[in-house]
Amino acid sequence: MNVGMRVRGGFLAALVMCALPVAGTLTVMLLSSPAVAQSVATIEVAGNRRVEVETIRSYFKASPSGRLDQAEIDDGLKALIETGLFQDVKISQTGGHLLVTVIENPVIGRIAFEGNKKIKDEQLTAEIQSKPRGTLSRPMVQSDAQRIAEVYRHSGRYDVSVTPEIIEQPNNRVDLIFTIVEGQKTGVKSVEFIGNNAYSSYRLKDIIKTHESNLLSFLGGGDVYDPDRVEADRDLIRRFYLKHGFADVQVVAALTEYDPARKGFLVTFKIEEGQQYRVASVNIESSIPTLDGNALRSFSRVSVGSLYNAEALEKTVEEMQIEASRRGYAFAVVRPRGDRNFEAHTVSIVFAIDEGPRTYIERINVRGNTRTRDYVIRREFDISEGDAYNRALVDRAERRLKNLDFFKSVKVTTEPGSSSDRVILVVDLEEKSTGDFSVSGGYSTTDGPLAEVSISERNFLGRGLFAKASVTYGEFARGLSLSYVDPYLLDYRVALGLDAFYREQLPNSFISYGTKTIGFSPRLGFALREDLSLQLRYSIYEQQISLPGNLANCNNNPSNGLLAFNPSPAFANLNGFPPGGTATAGGQTATDASGTGLWCYSDGEASLPVRKELASGAALTSSIGYSLDYNTLDNNKNPTDGLLIDFKQDFAGVGGDVSYLKSAVDGKYYAPLVADIVGLIHIQGGILNKVGNSELRMLDQFQMGPNLVRGFAPNGIGPRDINPYGTMDALGGTKYWGASYELQMPFWFLPKEVGLKGAVYADAGGLYDYQGPTTWAATGELTTPSNSNCIRPTTSPPSPGTCTGLVFDSGNTVRTSVGVGLIWASPFGPLRFDYAIPLTKGRFDIVQQFKFGGGTSF
């Protein structure tokens, strides 16, 4: 960093004074010391233009005798110097008077920045102390130059050069110009750990925010050296060890060294792990006579035999203290104490409940929120002015404010109030941009190439609202969606969400038909606990099927053999008839009541259930439902430990054309194993039930493929229309289950920053019990087959009653597969490649061994 100053114009006198110890600072000259003490009234002032005479005299304080001796004159000089108003001050004695001659500092007319491309003028202006129309202070200018260099240093540009220039203008005014040479970003070339035995360096790099530079670093920012980030990483490492039983851990140092050869920083964390402890006992002691400590035991997140976990300890203290406050003990304080057994490597934990000081909150001051409304911040506090001070509730509020993701930094501190039992809470914030505009792109083996343009705002209008609009366009999928979320409905901690959507799925190699869906869905979300949430929703949408012309043209060709059949002997030899037509045989007449020509199978027509949906036209679904989520994952984006369970139910039939009850559960359990290998157990299942006598639509059935058992195509498993003259569409099922075990492991030979992981897995599952429409009967209506395992007859015509269905349901056949995967947490978004080999499958299942999907925002 290079900070200097150049002076243009007529400041020769100032340049001469640079021989003084501090260059460019206020020059003070005492030409002669008065021999006789003076009074304040005898002080004469010369050279002042803007500063009043009495203001200058006021800096000279007379002694109790009313006279000015040498000590008082010296103090006055120092006071004038500290004002920063004067370029030069001279004191002399003449004619029995004290003469103070001043040269005022010029006024800054304009401040400009030259050479800054990476940081805007507005941001630099906010960082410096010198202001237009303010007095020029050379020490302040030097300080401003250093502050600008510091701003660039935090953005990773360590070879920045900042040179302030002072340009003289008429009327004792100057322009202040900061010339900046930004330089290149200084990256982190290596991150190393010393003393880590329990966890590998590869694992610890997941914990910290500082990353090594690589070819794709330009898409992120963690590879730029930032000493504040490195210091924060020390705390992240310490908290990680404390969470996993290492109660004595110390991150002794974070050493940084610039390597000129590699043109970057080398960062080394030195760790002293200590021993890993387990919990030997958990006791609760209350010194408050009327409060039984055991009544709070259910709020403990610490259990005997488990690893010592400082995070669980903190949450236990918080919840116990909040519960005590709810029970009327507003000043109760819970303090944890841990007694270590160094030989057995155990900790005996005691939660001591005491009566704390009776302190009240006098005021809550919020500072730094230039855009976010005050009430958006204050509503995150469960306490307000006048309430008892509760540190646990303050900590919770601070954590909530950080989780809003509206601010770069959040810090809640206390200041003394107007009396000894009053405190003032001070909330210091630094806001950040909360709007996002993204263009996303991706490709998958199911939907083909896909692009999305979206704009979102997490803090809409500064009111803490979320709004998003997105447009999706792809080869086989298109859509538009609008979302709005108010996290505090009517000032209660209840989130109201509104979604409007339009989705279009085009026919592809996996389905013969297209669908169009347009709908609206309001929802309410409740946080029951930090790890448990409930969502209530209502959905109303219209869905319609479309078919390509070649699948709905109903061309009859008797050469194809049996095109349609009917168990009635009178119609046994009919090959079919066009949509809406009639046929007569043996004195009996059959009519295609639905107008779909469902008997037509001559040249590859769509399956009967698909044509039934087409004949029915657009169907309106009106449903209510709920979801219950339990989440203890350590990281939602890249989990390595924890449990995630999602249970949901939807009841359709609140008006509309469709009725059913659909239930589904999805559970994932992650556990770290050895050598950075993570195990994943994935269990899922669902059931679709009829409501009343209504028929289940094909579109409402569960459709499964690689989302249940990898190695199969989308819609590749389960009941299927097996008519060989049709499109053999998957019809779905009303029941499914799936189980998977996966091992995820890093590629240790690759740099951590590449973000590649491998996976091996085994999947098993089943989809069965189709309960939709299937065949054509003499009355022209579709009926459910009496034998769902029916295989289409091969004789032409069939004997009456040979088969009443065209659906093949493999029943309880278990599909299984094994495979390998490649997971890439790339700068282009999460990408995954899977290659799976089915081991067991149904007779008409469709195999797809390779699957790829992923996308990004840029």
Automatic annotation (TrEMBL):
Residues 106-183, 359-432 form the POTRA domain. It is found in: Cell outer membrane; Membrane. Residues 1-37 form the signal peptide. The keyword Membrane applies. It comes from the Bacteria. InterPro entries: Bac_surfAg_D15, BamA/TamA_POTRA, D15-like, OM_assembly_BamA, POTRA. The keyword Flavoprotein does not apply. GO terms for cellular component: cell outer membrane. One of its GO terms (biological process) is Gram-negative-bacterium-type cell outer membrane assembly. It holds the Pfam family POTRA. Part of the outer membrane protein assembly complex, which is involved in assembly and insertion of beta-barrel proteins into the outer membrane. Part of the Bam complex. HAMAP family: OM_assembly_BamA. Belongs to the BamA family. PANTHER family: OUTER MEMBRANE PROTEIN ASSEMBLY FACTOR BAMA, SORTING AND ASSEMBLY MACHINERY SAMM50 PROTEIN FAMILY MEMBER. This is Outer membrane protein assembly factor BamA. It comes from Bradyrhizobium erythrophlei. The lineage of its organism: Bacteria, Pseudomonadati, Pseudomonadota, Alphaproteobacteria, Hyphomicrobiales.
